[in-house]
Amino acid sequence: MTKGEFLRQLKKSLRQLPKNEIEKSLLYYREMIEDRMEEGLGEEEAVAEFEDVQIIANGILKEFNIQPSKLKYDRFLLSSCVLFPLWLLACFIWSICASSLIFAIFTCLLSLFLCGPMALAAFFGIILSNMHGILLLGVGAICSGLGLILWVPGCKAAKWLAHSIKKLYGQSPLSRQKRTSQGEEKI
Amino acid sequence: MDIQLKRGLLEICVIAAVREEDKYGYKLIKDISPYIEISESTLYPILKRLEAAGHLTSYTVPHNNRLRRYYRMTNQGRARIEEFLEQWEQVMAAYQFIKGEGLDDKR
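YS: structure for the whole thing
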């Protein structure tokens, strides 16, 4: 995350505060990032050393007696009523789409491989001396070659699709909300 | 460590860190962290509380085309440290009692 992204997220999370307090917090964190960068850290490294933006914002809001319980409740409500059903729907749709794509990839690869032997059989079995037979054999050889060339990228694409399904299932809005709440227990 | 105890200790550490010279936020973290765990997100509310209580004041200084905020100890801050040190002697006496040290001497 860059300095700009971090400060934008922090500003958004502190929107309940008066403008001058938001500005003070942003100046403090901007100075901290720039001091770290002066010591030789990269921009993203400097930002990565901070805690989650939401945890930082909750700590500041607590100082102004803005009830974290209300914040937690609002987030829980948003997560459970809106984000969770949307996430479930996205998981369902993407699982079907990705599985279909994986199936299609392997079907295509198999078809390409089978073209070679089929063309060979056609060449010998049907029209041995005809030009059409040679053409058929050539097309079959090309298809088999393509099948061989595309095998590795096809497998990689299928693996990526399978991984994307797994990743999507691991990003439940409720579990993310739980992680943020755990962070709030710190000082 | 108990959260309230740590919070109190951190406040004293921050005041003590600017006892000799004025310091900016990142320098405070670097100077305090070898002794007690402190992060940017922990320091910020502490600085706000100490400023609001009049134990610290702050001012900005231009540095490399930007502004750096420095913190300075006030007389109230100095008094807070002295008060803490006095109280700590009582705490240490209680600590020795809890640990069972020095009981024989008193008998």
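YS: worth flagging: The interface with chain B takes residues 25, 27-29, 31-32, 34-36, 38, 50-51, 55-56, 59-60, 62-63, 187 of chain A (CB under 8 Å).
IM: good catch. Also DSSP finds seven helices and no strands in chain A.
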